[in-house]
C-alpha cells in the first residue's frame, strides 16, 4: 500500500471524530522548534582555550565524527534539518562564538563574534536563540557564578549575561524574529547548606543588574531556567524552581522548564496549564531524564505526548516556546537531533489529532468512563500513517529512510574527521 493510500485510510478514521487532519498539518507547519546546537559537539564550543565541561552536567559516549569547528557544526545541522519537517530555530550558547583564534573573554563578547551564525541563519531562514555560558570556565570552577560571594566573580558573570543579551538583541534584529535568551547557572552546594537565603539574595540582585539594561523586546526575550540538582550540587541549587518562578512572574520574564530538572515523578506537562494562567509565555527544554538529569534523546514516550497535548489543548502553540536539550555522544549526533526533533513534532501532531473538545466535554460531564476509553483508543490510532504522509508532503524522508541519509553523510563527512 502506498503512503497516500495508508494516509487516506487513517484520515478517514480520524474524520469519524470530526478531526480535520489537513488543518492539523497547517498548524504544525507553523511551529518552530528551537534545536540546540550543543548536541553536535557534546557541549564543547569553540573557545580558544576550551575548558572541560563543568557545571554539574555530563556527556557520555565517544561516537566518532563530532563537530570540532563552527563550519562542521553548521554543516551537521544543515544535514539534520534536511531530515526534519518544517522551519525551525537554532539555539546557541556563548561558547559557540567565533573569534578568529583570538582569546576573547566571555564578558567581552560582541555580536560580530556571531556574525557567521547570523549570516548562515539568514540564508537558511532560521531563527536563533541564545544562552550565556556560565560553566566550563575557570571563574565557575567552584560551581558558583551569579550567586558567588566574591563580587568580582559575580560582576564578571553579570557582564557576560549583559553582553549576551546585546548579542541576542542584534541577532533578533538581523533575523526579524526575537531571540530567546535563557539564563541557566550551575550554582549550588554538594552538601547541606547552612544558609540558603544569602546566595539566593545575591542571585536575585545579579539578575536585576543583568535585566536593568534596556533591551528591545521585539528582538530579545529573556528566560530563566531552574534546576533541582546537578553533579556537585546535589543538596542545594540556588536557582530552584520556586526561585525562578517567582522571579519570572514578578519581572515579566519567561520561566523555562527543563523536563530533566524536577523530581522523578514531577511532570512538566502538569505545570504548563497552571503557569499559563499567570504568564503570557513560557519556555521548555524538552529532554529525557533517565534516573537523573541525563539528557537522553527525546523519545515518543508518555510524557512527551502529554506535553504535546497540554500545549495543544490549551491553545498555546504560540505561547510555549519549545526548545530541546539533550546531548548523547554514544550515537550518531545527527541521528540524535533527527530522532529528538521529529519526536517533538510528532507529539504535537498526535495532540492536534485528538478529539480534545469531546474529551473535555466528557470530563466536564463527569463521564470518566468514556474519557478513559477514548484516551486509550487513540493511543493506537494510525498516527504513523498520518505522520508519514506529513513527512512526504514536507519533502523529508518517510519512516526510517532518513537513516540512509545519515549513513551516507557519515561515510562522506563524519568518518573523515579526527
Ligand atoms: C547546555 C544547557 O544550557 C544546559 O543543559 C542547561 O540548559 C541545563 O539544562 C543544565 O542542566
Ligand atoms: Mn536545559
What does this structure look like?
The chain has 418 residues and is an alpha/beta fold. It has a single domain, classed as Divalent-metal-dependent TIM barrel enzymes (TIM Barrel, Alpha-Beta Barrel). The protein contains 14 helices and 12 strands. Helix 2 packs across helix 10 (333-352) and helix 8 (269-276) runs parallel beside helix 9. The protein is globular, with a radius of gyration of 22 Å. Bound molecules: the ligand C[C@H](O)[C@H](O)[C@@H](O)C(=O)CO and manganese (II) ion. The ligand C[C@H](O)[C@H](O)[C@@H](O)C(=O)CO binds next to loops.
Which stretches are poorly predicted, pLDDT < 50 over at least 5 residues? none
Q: Strand tally, please?
A: 12
Number of domains: 1
Could you describe the largest sheet, including whether it forms a barrel? 5 strands, parallel
**What is the CATH topology assignment?**
TIM Barrel
Topology order in helix (H) and strand (E) letters: HHEHEHEHEEHEEHEHEEEHEHHHHH
Q: List the strand order in the largest sheet.
A: 4-6-8-9-12
Q: Which percent bin holds the helix content? A: 40-55%
Number of helices: 14
Which strand-content bin applies to the residues? 5-15%
The CATH architecture is Alpha-Beta Barrel
Give me the CATH superfamily. Answer: Divalent-metal-dependent TIM barrel enzymes
Assigned CATH class: Alpha Beta
* Mean pLDDT score: 98
**Gyration radius, in Å:** 22 Å
Family: Belongs to the rhamnose isomerase family.
Protein name: L-rhamnose isomerase
GO molecular function, one term: L-rhamnose isomerase activity
Keywords: Cytoplasm, Isomerase, Manganese, Metal-binding, Rhamnose metabolism
Amino acid at each position: 500500500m502506498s503512503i497516500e493510500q495508508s494516509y487516506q485510510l487513517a484520515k478517514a478514521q480520524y474524520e469519524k471524530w470530526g478531526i480535520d487532519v489537513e488543518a492539523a498539518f497547517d498548524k504544525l507547519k507553523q511551529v518552530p522548534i528551537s534545536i540546540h546546537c550543543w548536541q553536535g559537539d557534546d557541549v564543547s564550543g569553540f573557545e580558544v582555550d576550551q575548558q572541560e565541561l563543568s557545571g554539574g552536567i555530563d556527556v557520555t559516549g565517544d561516537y566518532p565524527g563530532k563537530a570540532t569547528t563552527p563550519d562542521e557544526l553548521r554543516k551537521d545541522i544543515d544535514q539534520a534539518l534536511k531530515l526534519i519537517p518544517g522551519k525551525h530555530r537554532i539555539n546557541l550558547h556563548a561558547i559557540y562564538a567565533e573569534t578568529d583564534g583570538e582569546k576573547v573573554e566571555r564578558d567581552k563578547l560582541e555580536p560580530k563574534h556571531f556574525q557567521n551564525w547570523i549570516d548562515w541563519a539568514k540564508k537558511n531562514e532560521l531563527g536563533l536563540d541564545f544562552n550565556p555560558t556560565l560553566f566550563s570556565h575557570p571563574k565557575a570552577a567552584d560551581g558558583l557564578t551569579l550567586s558567588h560571594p566574591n563580587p568580582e566573580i559575580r560582576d564578571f558573570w553579570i557582564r557576560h549575561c549583559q553582553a549576551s543579551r546585546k548579542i541576542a538583541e542584534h541577532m533578533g534584529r538581523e533575523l526579524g524574529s526575537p531571540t530567546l535568551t535563557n539564563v541557566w547557572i550551575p550554582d549550588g552546594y554538594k552538601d547541606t547548606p547552612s544558609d540558603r537565603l544569602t546566595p539566593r539574595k545575591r542571585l536575585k540582585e545579579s539578575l536585576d543588574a543583568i535585566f536593568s539594561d534596556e533591551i528591545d523586546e521585539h528582538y530579545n526575550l529573556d528566560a530563566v531556567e531552574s534546576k533541582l540538582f546537578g553533579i556537585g550540587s546535589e543538596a542545594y541549587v540556588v536557582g530552584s524552581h520556586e526561585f525562578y518562578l517567582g522571579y519570572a512572574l514578578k519581572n515579566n520574564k519567561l520561566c523555562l522548564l527543563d523536563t530533566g530538572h524536577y523530581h522523578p515523578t514531577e511532570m512538566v506537562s502538569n505545570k504548563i496549564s497552571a503557569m499559563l494562567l499567570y504568564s503570557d509565555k513560557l519556555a521548555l527544554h524538552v529532554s529525557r531524564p533517565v534516573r537523573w538529569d541525563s539528557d537522553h534523546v527525546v523519545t515518543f514516550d508518555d510524557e512527551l505526548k502529554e506535553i504535546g497535548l497540554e500545549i495543544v489543548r490549551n491553545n498555546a502553540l504560540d505561547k510555549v516556546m519549545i526548545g530541546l536539550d539533550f546531548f548523547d555522544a554514544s550515537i550518531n549526533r545527527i541521528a540524535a537531533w533527527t530522532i529528538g526533533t521529529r519526536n517533538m513534532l510528532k507529539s504535537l501532531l498526535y495532540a492536534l489529532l485528538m478529539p480534545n473538545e469531546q474529551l473535555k466535554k466528557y470530563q466536564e460531564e463527569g463521564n470518566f468512563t468514556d474519557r478513559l476509553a477514548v484516551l486509550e483508543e487513540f493511543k493506537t490510532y494510525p498516527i504513523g500513517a498520518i505522520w508519514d504522509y506529513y513527512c512526504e508532503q514536507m519533502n523529508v524522508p518517510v519512516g526510517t529512510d532518513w537513516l540512509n541519509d545519515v549513513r551516507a553523510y557519515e561515510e562522506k563527512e563524519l568518518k573523515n574527521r579526527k
